[in-house]
Amino acid sequence: MSIFSWLFAKNTEKNSMVRKWILQEIKKVDIENPDVYVLFLGLIQTAVSWGKHDIKGQDDQMLEVSKQYLGDATIFEIAAYTYYRVEIWLDKEQPELAKQIALPIREWIAEKFHTVLYVDERLFNQLFEEQLIRYKSLTGAGKTLTDLHLELEQRILLTRGDRFNKQSLSKDSASAALESQYIKKSLVKYEEINIPEVIANIQQYCEKQSKIKLEERKSKGQQLMENHEQRDYLYGMALVAQNDWVRACNAFTKVLAANPKHYDALIQRGLLYSTLHQYVDALEDFTVAIEVNPNESAAYIHRGKCYHRNLRVKDKSLADYSEAIRLAPNLAAGYFGRGELYDEIALHKEKQALEKHDHLTYGHLSEEFLAAIHDYSQVIALEPEYDAAYANRALLYARKARAHQHIDDITNAIADFEKAMSLNWEHGYLYKQQDEMKELLEESQLEKEA
After folding, report:
1. Residues 140 and 276 in one domain
2. Contact 445, 407 (CB under 8 A)
3. In 10 A of CB 232, how many CB atoms?
4. What is the tens place of the pLDDT at every residue in 100-159?
5. Rg of the chain over all Cα atoms, to the nearest angstrom
6. The domain that contains 242 carries what CATH number?
7. Which range is least confidently modeled, 34-38, 241-245, 382-386, 387-391?
8. Residue that is last in its domain, among 204, 219, 234
9. Residue 280: which H helix or E strand, with range?
10. Name one Pfam family in it (predicted).
11. Fewer beta carbons below 10 Å: N end or C end of the chain?
């Protein structure tokens, strides 16, 4: 008796090595997140279940017949047939994924059967290939599903003894008819229940893979687009560093053509428009940037400056500076911009008072004056080396010192002038005003002593 004859003669569920193996393997996989190996296990598990289906009206005699077809040889035949049906479906419905799914399953079927049964893999591959060719030839000849089942029935009947000895078919016509009846009914039920289940699982897997591939393509496309955007943006920044305003503006425009919501490109182009005196365009870019990211302070600060310094719209400028401060209370830029705005408003009121010889109003500490002092002080608290804040606050104190010669304002102005000049030599122009304050301090002290 050959090795195949010996193995397949033990054709009972109890002795089925494939059944034991599938029970072990099925516990190891993640059914909720299937891969191709899970599909293979599902296919084999389906083949394993073929001989265990109860047939309506099955009597003891039929039950005894069914026990003869619960072993590895029958499972192999059913697995080969099921694989053929899967391969045909894949070629028709999912040609892009056919090789990705079918080829590994085909290799695993031969590998696992020869491993479990300790039989030469080359021979198993040959057996499997012969089965597929047999089914394909029937399909190619225009045969129906009934013809395929007839072929499969003959193959299953051969598994009762020596798989390759056709003489192993039952010689008892009554027994042969009973076995044929059992196999036919089992195949009908298998076709109605198991084959659709296998196809449905593979279809679900294909849909998931197609979705993943689509998302990957989108991700790659998005990444490529972002890479191009980043390249063009960095090129624009390099041109800014070279003071090539027009070409830099064109680079940022290219970024925004691909991605109109690119926040940094909107900010940079808006700043360039301001430099090029295109203030309306700058305002539009800053406004779009705020719409893109309303919780980021930078666009509010830059739009506030545009309203303040270029368009002279003080109320909108004040609103933008204040919103920037609310969003980023630990950043000095918002306080400095608003401080300059309050400073200008206070200076304008003081000039009007001087023109009207209204010395009382000129010397009055207006709300804007106090607000400007507060904002410059906030800048200094956040950034103690911010020289412009010291210079601007010194000039504020100096104006009030000239108006009413309060010693506190004079000393504050002198200290801030000194600090500003020590931090940045470009504030050297303040020496004259510092000397003026020192002279004013001496005069005030003499008057106080007198």
Report:
1. no
2. yes
3. 22
4. 888 888 888 888 887 776 677 787 788 888 888 988 888 888 888 888 888 888 888 877
5. 44
6. 1.25.40.10
7. 34-38
8. 219
9. helix 279-292
10. TPR_8
11. C
Tell me how far apart the alpha carbons of residues 179 and 339 are, in angstroms, rounded to a whole number. Answer: 99
| Cα 248 from Cα 303, distance rounded (Å) | 20
Over the stretch 182-222, which tens digit does the pLDDT of each residue have? 888 888 888 888 889 889 888 888 888 888 777 766 766 56
- Out of 150, 184, 219, pick the residue that ends a domain: 219
Q: Is 397 helix (H, G, I), strand (E, B) or coil?
A: helix
Question: Domain check: are 254 and 153 in the same one?
Answer: no
φ/ψ of residue 177, rounded to 5: -65, -40
Across 368-383, average pLDDT: 95
Q: Report the number of distinct structural domains present in the chain.
A: 2
Distance CA 381, CA 363 (A): 27
- The verdict on 112 and 208 lying in the same domain is yes
Residue with tokens 């290939």: 129
pLDDT of residue 3: 40
Distance from C-alpha of 156 to C-alpha of 185, rounded to nearest angstrom: 13
User: What tens digit of pLDDT does each residue of 399-441 get?
Assistant: 988 888 889 999 999 999 999 999 999 888 899 999 999 999 9
Do 105 and 40 contact (CB within 8 A), yes or no? yes
**Measuring CA to CA, which residue among 368, 378, 372, 364 is closest to residue 331?**
378
Which residue intervals of 306-406 are DSSP H helices? 314-327, 332-355, 359-363, 367-382, 387-404
User: How far, in Å, CA of 52 to CA of 194, rounded?
Assistant: 12
Report the distance separating Cα 140 and Cα 163, nearest Å: 26
Tell whether 118 and 255 lie within a shared domain: no
SS3 content of the chain, % helix, strand, coil (to 5): 80, 0, 20
Residue ranges making up the domain that contains 81: 3-219
Q: Could you tell me if 329 and 211 lie in one domain?
A: no
Question: Which residue, 42, 32, 49, is CA-closest to 200?
Answer: 42
Give 384's pLDDT tier (boundaries 50, 70, 90).
very high
Contact 183, 153 (CB under 8 A): yes
Q: Both 196 and 322 in a single domain? A: no
139 and 231 belong to one structural domain: no
- The residue type found at 404 is H
Pair 202, 169 in one domain: yes
Q: Which of 3-17, 225-239, 299-313 has the highest mean pLDDT?
A: 299-313
- In the chain, the amino acid numbered 103 is L
